[in-house]
Amino acid sequence: MSAPLADLDTAVKVLREHPGATGVAALPAPDGRRVLAVVPDLATAPVDLRDHLWEALDPADRPDVLVAVDALPAGTTGLDLEGPGSHTFRAPSTPTEQDLAEIWAETLGRPRIAADDNFLDLGGDSMTAALLLDLTNERLDADLTLGDLLSAPSLAAIATLIDERR
Fold this sequence. Notes:
By secondary structure, the chain is an alpha+beta fold. Helix content is 39%, strand content 13%.
């Protein structure tokens, strides 16, 4: 069971102090998860705000979901907690996910990669895709293609694809 929204006070404070966040609100989700909605400025990627929270906060102080929005909502009605702009941090759990996360972190220059992260959402482009594919195929003895990378919704999905092909 998630803690009450009051437990997100520290997270709200941390994000309000971040120069890339122009608005922050803690919201209850219909399913009981603790949601932090943030309005990032144009120069700040939502995943950078997520990483800032994960570095600054103890696990108990972190929201269940961080959602980037254009404007703070009055409630959670219509708030997409699973789509683009929604950031959770589910740590890579399988050996393939963990190995793949290390390759992605190295290639993308990110301090951490979540199992549900998407390559393109993390700033991946054609140059980094080529490097990532080379490293992944070499280190994990995989046979991934650019199409696999672009069509898979997450690191976890790509890890599953690798495991299925073994």
